């Protein structure tokens, strides 16, 4: 997932629970030019420092649970231990084979879940995220992951950049694969079940420039470009891929630019 604006939305504030979090909360608010929740704001969302982590919280009636990045537990831990290794669709789409770990540029890092899977499998992954909100959550998750002995080596393979991929140059070592997972403009209610998707879409909308992002990826001439799409979604830019790897709820469109 990715966000369509470099600047944070104005309906979000920064807050904290413990006094020890006051200083980092003030620093984050200053960096993102966001108000503090104790200044009387009626923001719909909060970036909240709670129990040693940064959370995105929805305020008001009908609010859902918090969204945060945790590579040590939950879904990330389950996928690390039981995700299927290199036989899972994501790994096959990116061309992971025995003895081959491609360098990956994840141009729409989002909450970093797929990037973490790839790093778990041995890939060096450059995560690029243009949303300052998602970047802050990712940065916090990576920072905490560095202190967990069980995943330190995995986190060391992940590098995070706050930028719009289309306005940056590729890393010094050109990626073997560019991975894209743009926000898809769902229109049915069932697609909004996941709180992470619903909250990030409510804050920032959809990726209206996803077709241009695919053109940019082709222009970088990697060995392959992989696009994650919901099942039944149209191809980006109406470009039919030569290879499609199907998963349970999504598919991976695989292109070989051949520059």
Brief write-up:
The chain has 259 residues and is an alpha/beta fold. The chain has 8 helices and 10 strands. The N terminus is likely disordered.
Structure description:
By secondary structure, the protein is α/β, with parallel strands linked by helices. The protein has 2 domains: 12-58, no CATH class; 74-255, 3-Layer(aba) Sandwich (Rossmann fold). Helix content is 27%, strand content 20%. It has helices at 22-32, 74-82, 89-93, 113-120, 132-145, 152-155, 195-204, 210-219; strands at 12-16, 45-50, 53-58, 104-106, 125-129, 158-162, 177-180, 224-230, 243-246, 250-255. The strands form 2 sheets. The chain has a 7-stranded mixed beta sheet with strand order 6-5-4-7-8-10-9, sandwiched between helices. Strand 1 (12-16), helix 1 and strand 2 form a beta-alpha-beta unit. It is globular, with a radius of gyration of 18 Å. The model is unreliable at 1-5 and 189-193 (pLDDT under 50).
What brief labels describe this structure?
seven-stranded mixed sheet; 259 residues; Rossmann fold; three-stranded mixed sheet; alpha/beta; 8 helices; 27% helix
